[in-house]
């Protein structure tokens, strides 16, 4: 073998070896604590070896005919590996690494200049833009998203002009999806909005910290794992990430205190002139992630993201995670789907506000946070028979395929042998636990379109001020920063007081006490209290139960919608935003 042939042949052998390993790890299940870790390490080492080899022998490889897009493809594969590992572990550092590689591909223009006649390379470039958009979305890199959207749009138009015999309809749909997503997501429409992620500076209330620190239940559960699932027709999404799951995903992650998630210009500039990186050698700084992550933060809860799963797949994932759940830990399950209520066997539930309401007990106490069924039966008046757990259901499939895609309350009961925090956002129907109302409430009918705006209940749990303003038709984009900051301050002060009350309440149910120490779950509980209070103040009359959320087991009466400490928060916020005319407050 000639000496000049050794380098390119070695390179091709490394590419083939890495690609074979990549094919094995790409389709591994994303759930499970040990799934794919061994394979990931092997394929990662293979690509690192390949990446280092092309760096060290760049001149010989270029002389032998190496194309720039081939370097971009290798970097893109490494980015895919990192993003896949983020989806399996929820570790922010993997997401950062994926972004670093994708950003380098874009800035160094690896795919540009490859020739318009090479359709195969054009498809690689289209897929690169789609993957980079997904990573940038989750990182809230809004400026970069806008840059990549424009490049994707231009490339699609160029491909349609130069490859007239090829159908690019699917890629046009991808373009429409991302445009629809960013036109609705408040991260893009309201640049000054607070992050969905848990920020220590914004969400950790100083006044309640000592009480939370001293709070001790008989058993303290650690929030380790979550399952996030959405299944609706025509819902806002990009790729396999729906708007509601996107919001909840971020709500269950830490916001680093540094500059990691902060928005910044996408294009680097020197003296006002954009830097040209097209001549870069393929060197990508592998240590940048260390400077962009916050090592002082605890690990994020692991999250399994399920997009339109089959019923059997959802149950299999729940079983896997439940089986691997460490001792003294709790699993959060968020299910957002349409459904059908049962027709008979209603149960009377006493609300913490004192009114009596009739509601179908979907999942009843069995789906609460308890480890066993018997301890929460005291929250339900009346005796339930086995058939009651198979009247309600959620649709996880086409409506015309019978019951094979129906998720019944009874399907979830076996998983309550382990601690379970269940959120069901069952739009238009009755639901349970941190329970959505039957119907959303909006000033204007157009805002109630869930296919356009996502779920109101989910928005209250992930961005309460945005949900409040959207509900009453208050335009945040037209408001000055002082108004918004004052509104956020009203909420922060109230949430701090409510956390103290929860910690000091002698009537706090053990179910809630076991999870109150976890910042993510505590924030969800407090935001639920706010959501319930807001909707109760809008619908104070009898017969309005369909518009109100519910939780089981009940929270203390001291935080009921009619309590002074809760009602005063809603009243103060409504007065501040000058929307008090929408609410009905009882005299203290």
Q: Biggest sheet, strands in spatial order?
A: 8-2-9-15-16
**Could you say which structural class the secondary elements and strand pairing correspond to?**
alpha/beta
Largest sheet properties: 5 strands, parallel
List low-confidence stretches.
258-283, 342-384, 428-432
Beta-strand residue percentage: 5-15%
Would you tell me the overall average pLDDT? Answer: 80
Number of DSSP strand runs: 16
Number of DSSP helical runs: 22
Instruction: Report the span from N to C terminus.
Output: 92 Å
Helical residues, percent: 40-55%
Number of domains: 2
Globally, the shape reads globular
C-alpha Rg (nearest Å): 26 Å
List keywords for this structure.
588 residues, alpha/beta, Delta-Endotoxin, domain 1, 2 domains, five-stranded parallel beta sheet, 22 helices, 16 strands, transcription corepressor activity, Protein SCAI-like isoform X2
Description:
This protein is α/β, with parallel strands linked by helices and 588 residues long. The chain folds into two domains: 2-188, Delta-Endotoxin, domain 1; 198-251 and 296-339 and 403-582, no CATH class. The chain contains 22 helices and 16 strands. The protein has helices at 3-26, 37-56, 58-63, 68-89, 92-107, 119-138, 142-162, 169-184, 186-189, 200-203, 209-214, 243-251, 288-292, 311-324, 409-412, 450-453, 456-462, 464-472, 481-504, 510-513, 519-538, 564-576; strands at residues 198-199, 222-231, 237-238, 241-242, 254-255, 269-270, 273-274, 302-307, 329-337, 339-340, 347-350, 356-359, 393-395, 406-407, 420-425, 434-435. The strands form six sheets. It has a five-stranded parallel sheet with strand order 8-2-9-15-16, with helices on both faces. The chain has a three-stranded antiparallel sheet with strand order 10-13-14. Strand 6 and strand 7 (273-274) form a beta hairpin. Helix 12 runs parallel beside helix 17, helix 17 packs across helix 21 (519-538) and helix 21 (519-538) packs across helix 22 (564-576). The model is unreliable at 258-283, 342-384 and 428-432 (pLDDT under 50). One of its GO terms (molecular function) is transcription corepressor activity.
């Amino acid at each position: 073998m000639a000496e000049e042939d050794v380098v390119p042949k070695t390179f091709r052998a490394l590419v083939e070896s890495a690609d074979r390993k990549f094919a094995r790890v790409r389709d591994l299940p994303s759930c499970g604590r040990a799934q794919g870790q061994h394979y990931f390490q092997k394929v990662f080492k293979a690509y690192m070896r390949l990446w280092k080899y092309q760096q060290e022998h760049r001149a010989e490889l270029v002389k032998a005919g190496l194309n720039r897009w081939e370097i971009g493809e290798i970097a893109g594969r490494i980015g895919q590996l990192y993003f896949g590992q983020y989806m399996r572990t929820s570790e922010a550092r993997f997401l950062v690494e994926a972004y670093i590689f994708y950003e380098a591909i874009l800035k160094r223009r690896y795919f540009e200049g490859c020739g318009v006649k090479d359709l195969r390379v054009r498809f690689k470039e289209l897929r690169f833009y789609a993957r980079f958009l997904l990573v940038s979305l989750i990182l809230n890199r809004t400026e970069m998203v806008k840059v990549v959207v424009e490049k994707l749009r231009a490339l699609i138009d160029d491909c349609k002009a130069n490859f007239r015999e090829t159908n690019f309809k699917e890629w046009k749909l991808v373009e429409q999806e991302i445009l629809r997503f960013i036109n609705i997501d408040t991260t893009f429409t309201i640049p000054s909005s607070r992050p969905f992620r848990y920020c220590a500076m914004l969400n950790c209330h100083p006044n309640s910290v000592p009480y939370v620190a001293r709070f001790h239940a008989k058993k303290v559960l650690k929030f380790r794992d979550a399952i996030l699932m959405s299944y609706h027709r025509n819902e806002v999404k990009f790729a396999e990430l729906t708007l509601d799951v996107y919001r909840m995903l971020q709500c269950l992650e830490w916001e680093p205190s540094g500059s990691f998630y902060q928005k910044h210009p996408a294009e680097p500039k020197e003296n006002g002139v954009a830097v040209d990186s097209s001549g870069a050698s393929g060197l990508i700084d592998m240590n940048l992630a260390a400077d962009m992550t916050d090592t002082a933060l605890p690990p994020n809860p692991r999250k399994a993201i399920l997009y339109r799963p089959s019923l059997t797949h959802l149950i299999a994932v729940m079983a896997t995670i439940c089986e691997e759940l460490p001792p003294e830990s709790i699993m959060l399950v968020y299910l957002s789907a349409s459904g059908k209520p049962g027709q008979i066997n209603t149960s009377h539930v006493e609300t913490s506000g004192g009114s009596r309401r009739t509601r179908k007990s979907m999942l009843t106490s069995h789906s609460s946070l308890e480890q066993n069924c018997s301890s929460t039966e005291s929250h339900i008046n009346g005796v339930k028979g086995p058939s009651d757990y198979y009247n309600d259901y959620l649709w996880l499939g086409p409506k015309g395929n019978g019951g094979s895609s129906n998720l019944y309350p009874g399907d979830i009961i076996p998983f309550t042998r382990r601690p379970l925090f269940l959120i069901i956002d069952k739009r238009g129907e009755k639901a349970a636990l941190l329970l959505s109302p039957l119907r959303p409430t909006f000033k204007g009918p157009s805002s109630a379109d869930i296919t356009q705006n996502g779920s109101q209940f989910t928005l209250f749990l992930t961005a309460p001020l945005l949900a409040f303003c959207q509900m009453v038709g208050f335009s945040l984009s037209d408001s000055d920063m002082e108004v918004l900051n004052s509104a956020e301050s009203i909420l922060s002060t109230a949430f701090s007081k409510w956390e103290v009350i929860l910690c000091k309440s002698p009537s706090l149910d053990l179910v809630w006490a076991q999870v109150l120490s976890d910042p993510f779950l505590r924030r969800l509980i407090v935001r639920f209290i706010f959501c319930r209070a807001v909707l109760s103040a809008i619908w104070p009359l009898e017969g309005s139960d369909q518009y109100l959320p519910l939780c089981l087991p009940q929270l203390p009466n001291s935080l009921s919608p009619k309590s002074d400490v809760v009602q005063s928060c809603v009243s103060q916020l409504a007065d501040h935003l000058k929307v008090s005319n929408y609410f009905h407050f009882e005299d203290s």
